[in-house]
Write a structure and sequence with these properties.
Rossmann fold; alpha/beta; 320 residues; six-stranded mixed β-sheet
Amino acid sequence: MAEVVHKTIPLALPLPWQEDLWQGFIERIDQGRLAHGLMLTGSAGIGIERLGMALAQRLLCTAELSKYACGSCKGCQLMVAGNHPDFSVLEPAEEGKAILIPAVRALMDKLSKTAQQGGWKVVLISPAENMNNNAANALLKSLEEPQAKTLWILLSYRPSLVSATIRSRCQVQNLPLPDTATATRWLAEVSGDQERAQQTLEIAGGRPLLALEYLQGDSLESRHSFETLIDRVRQGDMSPLDAAQQCQKLGSDQMLDWFMNYLHRLATGELQNNPNPALFDFSDKLRKARGWVLSGSNINGQLLWEELFMDWLQVFRQRR
């Protein structure tokens, strides 16, 4: 069951490509115009969580006239320690699981009490699309009848799956992909890898935090292995059945994301001057497959990948 937890993370600051949006938040805070419900949406790997946490920390910071959380006041120290009494995170107990109504009710009970530090009360819900219908309905009353100095920050990577009634009661702010120059410069500075920053950012689909994860971990090697497998099927060097068996070793959601990015790079790179119309039909099939996986349906992964790879092989056989 999902539960309300305290989130322990270092002091967060907005990322360089979020500065304009951040300045807008600060102006609304200073003018007393901050919405009681804020939904941040966008792709994973661009820093939505970072922005949400930075905003929560700024509101709970007791330093006056500060653009960012100061990091030294009592409020900031409580946040960094992970035990600020007026900050709550509502998230699934396990990744991919639902946020259920008991957790929402426990949160409501906590919010009904006066802020212990005498300032804001902040709730961060991540990801908002994981609330089931009952949990979302239980949340509605708080969004419809907001308490003073209480902010709900909802993070969503698939906002279309969040109920329309919840979305309508929040100020929805979509975060686009950062511009390539800013993201590349940041990635090179943070990773210390000037040579591979731009290439890795491209592989990550323009998502700099995902690119940083690739540079610092072994997932880039896994991705390269998967793309090699795609190429082998495309060239006829591996059967769709064998390729599907290999895909059982990794999560389908992640691999479908990799496949979609690979397809985009293929269409805008190698095949840019020699377009293949069948790629667009196959891209639709990938999106549908990803929708099935994300829906939580009980899908036979082996059969899903067998069908996809057989269709993938046909995309190029039709051209020969």
